[in-house]
Write the structure tokens for this entry.
Amino acid sequence: MITVRKVLAAALVGSLVLTLLPSAALAGDPHAVRHRWEGVAIGAGTVVLGGLLLHALQRPYPAVAAPQVYTPPSVVYAPPPVVEYRTWVPGHYQDRWVPVTERQRVWVEGHSENGWWVPGHWEERVRSGGYWTRVWVEGHWR
């Protein structure tokens, strides 16, 4: 059976032989060498083109790739949900701080400060303090 590949190979070899054989008409031509090299260039182009056509007719080989490695995600265990139990806190006494702020206007006598005389004037004084007291706290759920 004659395949396309054999036909193309025969055509390439035939065209190469025809281009390389000197013809009788070029026997006395001073440009014979130039024409011969033109024939060689045409033959080389034919070989390259034929090789491209020959490889275009071949079946492409199946692409072989490494098998994909599947790594499953790591297992993450979630902590159990926090269950909050409500507890009853009974009523009780508790000591609490009661802050007290006291403001007072006082008369400041005239005096000498750093060599300068400061006349008498009213000044507001703030006194912070407080006291502890015992308070009843009602029972509640916590």
